[in-house]
Task: inverse folding
């Protein structure tokens, strides 16, 4: 059984327990060192703030470790009691029952501490920027088209909107560029709430759909793809952008995909010269609102760019879960004729495609990908401790 199985009562392998013990001792020692250092006089105010912040972060882990240590002592005591109760059958029976319960509680606590100590992505607790765009559409044995790809991009965007609503997250549309078939050439939104990015970051990549489009008269199955990008929400605190690095152009909203046409220059195009990133927003009638939306997307893209570069310099771990940096990796297939959705990274298939497109059941993939990520992170932790 996997050591990160949903069954928390499952024993954790000895080699993992040894790593866990080393990590717990290290945390306990660091907590004690900081607690002692804070009692010393003459600490500079900035250093004092830094030490207190680190100590607060360690407090919860130390409390969990103390609870685990206490439960482990209880198990040792109950084992001794069972041994000593050879001639008292009733006492032995009671002690054995308590020992089984305490042993399960120890394993539960070990799993909890282990997951707590696995390195976390600091951006997980943030909201996110969702970007969806159509890519290509293939008709089996016939050639290429494009309408179905944009319709699929629209379906995915609406699926995430419904999933956000099911989780009581706030979903704010930033920009939508429609096509003649009412599909989405590209669309973006801000999703706000607790741990949104941590839940949705694994959705980045290429999603594939296989179905007979409503516009198909001959009943042929089309294969289309849409690209999804999930970026952690960011602002000027996370990313520094100098005024001379960006160019802001305004123009009249309208044209293909515009949600409205007006006679004022309300549309905004922001260009970041160092990276060449361009963000254009024309959905709002207010130039100020369009500029704010464009900048929020720019901050998110630059923040993710910095994070990707930092991650690449440390390891290639993130690529296993989130996909390639150019997001060209096909991560999931939605097969409507067979009524199934398959995530190719974890090999999980669900035969409830209609529900999933309504934002119901997507957490099955989210949870499976989280577990895979935790297992990979633990493997990395294990390798570092070797």
Result:
């Amino acid at each position: 059984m996997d050591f990160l199985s949903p069954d928390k009562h499952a024993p954790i392998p000895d080699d993992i327990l040894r790593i866990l013990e080393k990590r717990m001792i290290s945390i306990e020692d660091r907590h004690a060192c900081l607690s002692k250092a804070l009692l010393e006089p003459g600490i500079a105010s900035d250093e004092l703030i830094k030490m207190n912040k680190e100590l607060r972060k360690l407090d919860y882990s130390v409390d969990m470790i103390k609870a685990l240590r206490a439960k482990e002592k209880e198990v040792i005591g109950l084992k001794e009691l069972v041994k000593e109760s050879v001639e008292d059958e009733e006492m032995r029976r009671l002690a054995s029952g308590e020992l089984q319960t305490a042993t399960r509680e120890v394993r539960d606590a070990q799993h909890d501490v282990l997951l707590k100590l696995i390195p976390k992505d600091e951006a997980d607790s943030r909201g996110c920027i969702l970007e969806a765009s159509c890519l290509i559409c293939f008709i089996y044995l016939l050639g290429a088209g494009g309408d179905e790809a944009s319709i699929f991009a629209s379906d995915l965007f609406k699926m995430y909107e419904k999933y956000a609503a099911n989780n009581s997250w706030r979903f704010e549309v930033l920009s939508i560029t429609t096509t003649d078939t009412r599909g989405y050439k590209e669309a973006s939104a801000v999703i706000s709430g607790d741990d949104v990015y941590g839940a949705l970051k694994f959705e980045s990549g290429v999603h594939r759909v296989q179905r007979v489009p409503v516009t198909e008269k001959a009943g042929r199955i089309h294969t289309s793809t849409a690209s999804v990008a999930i970026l952690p929400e960011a602002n000027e605190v996370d990313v520094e952008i100098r005024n001379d690095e960006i160019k802001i152009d305004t123009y009249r909203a309208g044209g293909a995909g515009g949600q409205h046409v007006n006679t004022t220059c309300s549309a905004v195009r922001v260009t970041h010269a160092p990276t060449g990133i361009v963000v254009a927003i024309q959905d709002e009638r207010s130039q100020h609102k369009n500029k704010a939306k464009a900048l929020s997307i720019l901050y998110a893209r630059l923040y993710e760019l910095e994070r990707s570069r930092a991650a690449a310099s440390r390891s290639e771990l993130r690529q296993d879960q989130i996909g390639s940096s150019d997001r060209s990796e096909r991560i999931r297939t939605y097969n409507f004729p067979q009524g199934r959705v398959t995530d190719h990274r974890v090999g999980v298939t669900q035969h409830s495609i209609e529900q999933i497109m309504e934002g119901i059941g997507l957490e099955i993939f989210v949870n499976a990908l989280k577990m895979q990520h935790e297992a990979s992170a633990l493997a990395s932790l294990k390798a570092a401790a070797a």
Observations:
- The radius of gyration is 26 Å.
- The CA atoms of residues 178 and 257 lie 4 Å apart.
- The first strand starts at residue 128 and ends at 139.
- Residues 14-117 form one domain.
